[in-house]
C-alpha cells in the first residue's frame, strides 16, 4: 500500500473504520545512526559519530535510550522482521502483517528507539534527535501508507525547544499527537506548561509511555526503588503513570488548560479506579491545599485523559474483567493498543474477548475516533 491509498479513500470508507491501534512502534534500520542524514551539517559533525553515523551496525547500543531491562526471551516478536531487516523497520512489511493481517485501519506510531529520550542530560542533543526523528518518520512511514499516523516526538528537557518543534511539526500530514518521553519531573509541574499551552493551541494530545530508563539515569522517571529484573520492572510500570496522573490532577493542569488531552500508553489500567477513588475522597477534606482543583479529580480524568489497553489485564476469574471495565469507565477512557512489534503484543481479534460487543467497539474505535477527532480520518 502506498500514498496512492490516500487518493483512493472515500467518505464511505472513512465511516467504516473498525479498529484504531493507539500504540505501534516503528524502528530504524540502523538505530539512531539512521537519523544522522536528517540533521544539519553542524549537528552531524557534533554528534553524528556518537550516534553511529557512518557505521552499518545498529547503534542503539552506542546511546542506550531504552531496553535497559532485558527480556531474556527477546523483546520483539520474531515474526515481525522481514528477512534481512530488524523487526518493524519496514513500513511495507508492517502494513501487510499488522494493518492488513489484523484488520487495523489506523496505527499511531510511537518512536521505538526514543522511549528513553527524556533521560538524556543534554537538552539540545535530545531536541536535535527528536527533530531528526520526526522528519524521518514522516518520510519513511507517514508518506508510505495513509493508514499510519504519527506522534511527533519532543524532548521535554527544554520546553522552549519542545514548543518550537511542536509549532514546526503540528501541521504535517498524519500527525495526531505529541509523544513526550518521560522525564524526572512529574507532569503536573510548571516546567511543562509551555508544552501544554502549545499542545492545546494546536489541538494535539500529549502521549507518554514507559521508557526503559526508569531509576537508572539521573534524569529518568522515578519508580519507588530500582527493580533488578525485567519482570519486576514490567509489573511495576503503573507506578510511574499513577504518580504522573496524580500530579496532573492535583496541580490543576486541566483547569489551566481545559482543552488539553493526555494519553497514558502501556501503563496498566487497574490502578485507575483506586487512584480516582482516593483522590476524590481526599479532595473533600483537603480542598484548601489545592483550591485550583474546582471539581472532583475523577471528573478531569474522565474528560481529559485516556489510557491504552496493552498489556490488557487478565484476571483469573473472567467475570471480574467486566466489573473492572465498569469501575474505570472504560466505555469512555480506554483505547485499544497492540504494542506491535513487542513480545506481549495484543491481537485485536481476541484481546478483548469476553467483553460486550458494544464496549469492544467503544474501545477499539469510538473512543480513539472521538479523542483524536478529524486528524485520525
In short:
With 377 residues, this protein is an alpha/beta fold. The protein has helices at residues 4-8, 11-15, 41-47, 91-102, 123-142, 159-169, 193-202, 230-235, 238-250, 253-256, 271-286, 297-304, 319-327, 330-333, 357-372; strands at residues 20-24, 106-109, 148-153, 175-179, 206-208, 262-264, 305-308, 334-335.
Sequence-ordered SSE layout with sheet pairings:
Blueprint: H1 4-8, H2 11-15, E1 20-24, H3 41-47, H4 91-102, E2 106-109, H5 123-142, E3 148-153, H6 159-169, E4 175-179, H7 193-202, E5 206-208, H8 230-235, H9 238-250, H10 253-256, E6 262-264, H11 271-286, H12 297-304, E7 305-308, H13 319-327, H14 330-333, E8 334-335, H15 357-372
Parallel strand pairs: 1-2, 2-3, 3-4, 4-5, 5-6, 6-7, 7-8
Helix pairs in contact: 5-6, 6-7
Structure explained in plain terms:
This protein is α/β, with parallel strands linked by helices and 377 residues long. The chain is built from 15 helices and eight strands. The protein has helices spanning 4-8, 11-15, 41-47, 91-102, 123-142, 159-169, 193-202, 230-235, 238-250, 253-256, 271-286, 297-304, 319-327, 330-333, 357-372; strands at 20-24, 106-109, 148-153, 175-179, 206-208, 262-264, 305-308, 334-335. Strands 1-2-3-4-5-6-7-8 form an eight-stranded parallel beta sheet, with helices on both faces. The protein is globular and about 55 Å long. Residues 1-16 and 55-66 have low confidence and may be disordered.
Keywords:
377 residues; alpha/beta; 15 helices; 8% strand; disordered N terminus
Amino acid at each position: 500500500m502506498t500514498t496512492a491509498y490516500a487518493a483512493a479513500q472515500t467518505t464511505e470508507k472513512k465511516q467504516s473504520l473498525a479498529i484504531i491501534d493507539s500504540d505501534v512502534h516503528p524502528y530504524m534500520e540502523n538505530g539512531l545512526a539512521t537519523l544522522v542524514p536528517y540533521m544539519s551539517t553542524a549537528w552531524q559533525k557534533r554528534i553524528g559519530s556518537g550516534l553511529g553515523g557512518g557505521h552499518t551496525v545498529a547503534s542503539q547500543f552506542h546511546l542506550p535510550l531504552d531496553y535497559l531491562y532485558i527480556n531474556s526471551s527477546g523483546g520483539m516478536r520474531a515474526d515481525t522482521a522481514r528477512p534481512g531487516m530488524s523487526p518493524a523497520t519496514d513500513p511495507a512489511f508492517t502494513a501487510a502483517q499488522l494493518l492488513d493481517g489484523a484488520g487495523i485501519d489506523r496505527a499511531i506510531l510511537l518512536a521505538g528507539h526514543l522511549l528513553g529520550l527524556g533521560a538524556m542530560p543534554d537538552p539540545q542533543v535530545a531536541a536535535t534527535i527528536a527533530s531528526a526523528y520526526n522528519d524521518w518518520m514522516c518520510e519513511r512511514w507517514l508518506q508510505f501508507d495513509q493508514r499510519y499516523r504519527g506522534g511527533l516526538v519532543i524532548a521535554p528537557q527544554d520546553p522552549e525547544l519542545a514548543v518550537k518543534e511542536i509549532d514546526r511539526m503540528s501541521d504535517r500530514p498524519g500527525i495526531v499527537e505529541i509523544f513526550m518521553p518521560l522525564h524526572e519531573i512529574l507532569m503536573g509541574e510548571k516546567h511543562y506548561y509551555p508544552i501544554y499551552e502549545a499542545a492545546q493551541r494546536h489541538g494535539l494530545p500529549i502521549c507518554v509511555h514507559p521508557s526503559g530508563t526508569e531509576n537508572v539515569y539521573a534524569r529518568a522517571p522515578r519508580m519507588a526503588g530500582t527493580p533488578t529484573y525485567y519482570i519486576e520492572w514490567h509489573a511495576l510500570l503503573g507506578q510511574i503513570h499513577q504518580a504522573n496522573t496524580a500530579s496532573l490532577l492535583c496541580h490543576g493542569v486541566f483547569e489551566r488548560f481545559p482543552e488539553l488531552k493526555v494519553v497514558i500508553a502501556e501503563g496498566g489500567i487497574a490502578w485507575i479506579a483506586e487512584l480516582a477513588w482516593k483522590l476524590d475522597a481526599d479532595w473533600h477534606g483537603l480542598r484548601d491545599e489545592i483550591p485550583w482543583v474546582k471539581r472532583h479529580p475523577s471528573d478531569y480524568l474522565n474528560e481529559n485523559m485516556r489510557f491504552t489497553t496493552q498489556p490488557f489485564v487478565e484476571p483469573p476469574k473472567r467475570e471480574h474483567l467486566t466489573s473492572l471495565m465498569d469501575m474505570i469507565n472504560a466505555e469512555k477512557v480506554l483505547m485499544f493498543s497492540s504494542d506491535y512489534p513487542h513480545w506481549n503484543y495484543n491481537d485485536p481479534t481476541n484481546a478483548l474477548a469476553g467483553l460486550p460487543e458494544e464496549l469492544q467497539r467503544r474501545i477499539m474505535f469510538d473512543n480513539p475516533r472521538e479523542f483524536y477527532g478529524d486528524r485520525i480520518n
